[in-house]
Amino acid sequence: MRIEDYALVGDMHTAALVGRNGSVDWLCLPRFDSGACFAALLGGHRAGHWLLAPAAGGTCAGRRYRDGMLVLETTWDVPGGCARVLDFMPPRQEAPDVVRIVEGVRGRVEMRTELLLRFDYGEVVPWTRERGGELAVIAGPNAAWLQSPVPLTQESRPRAATASFTVAAGERVPFVLTWQESWRSRPHRLEAAEELANTERMWREWLGRCRYRGEYAEAVSGSLVTLKALTYAPTGGIVAAPTTSLPELIGGSRNWDYRYSWLRDAAFTLQALIGAGYSEEATAWRDWLLRAVAGDPADLQIMYTIDGGRRMPERTLDRLPGYEGSRPVRAGNAAARQFQLDVYGEVIDCLYQARQAGLGPEEDAWDLQRAFMDYLEGAWREPGNGLWEVRGPRRPFVHAKVLAWVAADRMVASVERQGLDGPVGRWRALREEIHQDVCAHGYDPGRNTFTQFYGSRGLDAALLLIPRLGFLPLDDPRLAGTVDAVCRELTEDGFVLRYRPEADGVDRLPGGEGVFVPCSFWLAHALALLGRRSRARALFERLLSLRNDVGLLAEEYDPGRRRQVGNFPQAYSHVSIVNTAEALTAAVQSA
After folding, report:
1. 530-535 mean pLDDT
2. What InterPro entries would the database entry show (predicted)?
3. pTM of the predicted model, to two decimals?
């Protein structure tokens, strides 16, 4: 199936992908970055899946999130009747649960289920037995139970549990899959109908807190639900995506593990949450950030695990053939140890925004920021790997230098506007020095554009962020020139590429990639800020049309194949929907 054929359900600890054919093809338990127990997404159905669909097979007639909540409703029309499947994960209690309820809508429908649990990314085949009227599964540290009124048959090959049953109009047939560490006792059994009511109540109340009232309310609320689903509730960390190794180009090798939290997303995620009225989530995200980055500024990483851990060693899962043959499949991410200058600016900007928004107390945060600035004063001239984590030589990337300026600027503003104490004169001088350096070495006057790095003729989509960072006044012609240059040289079918890998030898990885979805939203946002509202609106609405039938977006889009690529759903894509919608709404109100 295509990437966009999947929908998401989750419990704010982990998430599952459910296909249009009724199969759960991806689920990591007990948390986002655990080994997958359903890995059919990357290894075919023998790597683990859970099918629940009409026995006749095929794809659904339609699906939606019920009233915008994270309860997936899939409808099947077949000869003789109509059935509906509700998929959701209740808010975590003792253990993770996946609930699937089959409802008869019209006539009678013959249904089939097939459960194939394979732990550790499909490598571990568990021991399965019937116990107490339910299916019990165990292998090493993993145990699971499938609770249902439908009798299941254990098949020796491929060691799956299957059942066929008929659902008539007005009937409900529930299935509850529960996971627990194998040395613990079985968690208490859930009542599917009760958990459905509880889950809907939680999401209804949460959605009721949204204060966005613009014309893009449906897109904004759907994206906020996705961000909430990608939040690890115990810590407030937000994963970039719940998947690993979905390719940036079908058949290519740019396949990365995104089940971690990136500092680069911090300020824009905070902006989206605060703007929509979710101060509790914004505070949790801010607090995760503070815990994660605490320590020696020289040791700051670009990403952390969802609990703030630093170790995520990268390895390849060679037994998995990859999504549509896209290899290697990776677990872990070696980019964590790259040097990216911009993260210091992103952290400081995030904490500045949090204070401006009046978020709760942040003990020792100012001391941490001052330590970052002490380090940055000596390190801002150093080359780095850049926002895009290029696995080539380090470069003096312009976006990174601008974010160093942002760090100094927000520290000055923290003293001048928020009453904090610090060597503001020194920070003002540093701010001016960085500004002059960027304008002298990162700007091409002949083409009237900033460039990807000092001395380069290449461009970088991150340059589109400059207008919203305050580096130059919005009427400065260099901003308009940079936006025009990106439109001219860095787009494909009207969508924005991150950069051109072949330009200036910046990237040594083979193969290309799709267009990066957030970058195109950045262009729409920049156009809105520069007063080009009709172009901004047209691009934004075109980007919204790339969402799948339940409103989800991956990391990238392949214009040639007209399909989504990259890890899915991508938090940064949905953050960009929220922030761009806010910018367009503000532009209309100020006109």
Report:
1. 96
2. 6-hairpin_glycosidase_sf (IPR008928), 6hp_glycosidase-like_sf (IPR012341), GH15-like (IPR011613), Trehalase-like_N (IPR045582)
3. 0.96
